[in-house]
Amino acid sequence: MTDTALRPKTVTTRCVRAILAGRKTQLRQVLDPQPPEGAAIAGIDLEGRLTWTEGGRTVRAEPCPLGEPGDRLWVREPWVLPAGTDWALDPGHARRHLRYLADEELPVTHPGSRPVAAGEFHPAMEMPQWASRLTLEITGVRLEQVHEISLEDLRSEGGVWREGAPAPSPEADREGFAQWWSAVNANRGTTWDRNPWVWVVEFRRVDGE
């Protein structure tokens, strides 16, 4: 596996729970930059990269930043070590005492749920690789617009918008995903109504292998 790339990937706590439960086997990464409004889309080339015409010239998007099939992602999530625990002095002890916000930030409808002091956890972006508990191997990569998501792919997204509870209908599932997508991507200007181009990344868990 000398040619395998290993990259960090930050995910939400809901996504972490869905991955741990085995429900989530896909993620979507917004193409950056997006084709400008009014650009003429030429299509997707043989390397799977989007091309479009802009100002009389042809623009070719960059490859998927998460990698290609066979590459791996180590997941970053909010985490914390108890006070006085030193990774450098005792890595084994530190690993055993790591806490993850996804394990404690339970849905409000979950029996026995309780408030969690999220402020005591380090942001996911500050997680070092040694603290990561999830490693994902990329099994497929493709480009599409987010509105193209199929019912099968909605299932592969793990129901993160409803924490795994059964959906009353496929239409409700699609609407729930749309609302969740817009909430997560509001600051990027790539909400559901904009129908952004996204990388669809399929994966399997390989931590422990």
Strand content: 25-35%
Amino-to-carboxy terminus distance = 12 Å
Number of helices: 5
What string gives the helices and strands in order?
Answer: EHEEEEEEHEHEHHE
State the fourth-level CATH superfamily of the largest domain: Hypothetical protein
- Can you summarize the main beta sheet? 5 strands, mixed
Q: Structural class of the secondary structure composition?
A: alpha+beta
Which strand order do you get reading across the main beta sheet? Answer: 1-6-9-10-2
Helix share of residues?
A: 10-25%
Could you give the count of β-strands?
Answer: 10
- Give the overall pLDDT as a whole number: 89
Taking all Cα atoms into account, the compactness measure Rg is: 19 Å
Number of domains: 2
The CATH architecture term of the largest domain is: Roll
Task: Explain how this protein is built.
Helix content is 19%, strand content 25%. The protein folds into two domains: 6-77 and 132-205, Archaeosine Trna-guanine Transglycosylase, Chain: A, domain 4 (Roll), CATH 2.30.130; 78-127, no CATH class. It has helices at 13-20, 91-96, 101-104, 151-156, 170-185; strands at residues 6-10, 26-30, 40-44, 50-54, 57-60, 72-76, 79-80, 99-100, 135-145, 197-205. 24% of the residues are buried. It is an alpha+beta fold and 209 residues long.
